[in-house]
Design brief:
This protein is α+β, with helices and mostly antiparallel strands. It is built from four helices and four strands; from the N terminus they run βααββαβα. The chain is elongated.
């Protein structure tokens, strides 16, 4: 869990959970799954959440959401306290988590 910004957690539906279970079974059957075995009964009973991070561009104000799992693959926490991404609207490297955006913009008005 990041220290300097928040994530948004959304509980997945039973339909999504069943789809993920089908995907797991397909991957297992066809040799695409390489992780530890999953306890299917435990998986069905457990609440599962998708996490995302809301970003806002410091330059143009465009807002976007990014899955936290994908963000972790792109961002090295040992290098910076928060990720800075290219904005999907203005293409400037100014898109930051919304919590950081608010901290940065509040500093301007002090």
């Amino acid at each position: 869990m990041p220290k300097h910004f928040n994530t948004i957690k959304i509980k997945i539906s039973d339909e999504e959970k069943n789809q993920r279970l089908e995907d797991y079974r397909y991957a297992l059957k066809n040799g695409f799954y390489f992780g530890p075995p999953v306890d299917i009964d435990d998986f069905i009973k457990r609440d599962i959440f998708d996490e995302s991070v809301r970003f806002k561009c410091l330059s143009c104000g465009f807002e976007d959401n990014l899955e936290y799992d994908i963000l972790l693959e792109m961002w090295d926490e040992s290098v910076s306290d928060y990720p800075i991404l290219y904005c999907n609207h203005c293409s400037k490297e100014k898109s930051v988590p919304i919590d950081i955006y608010h901290k940065q913009t509040l500093k301007v008005f002090r």
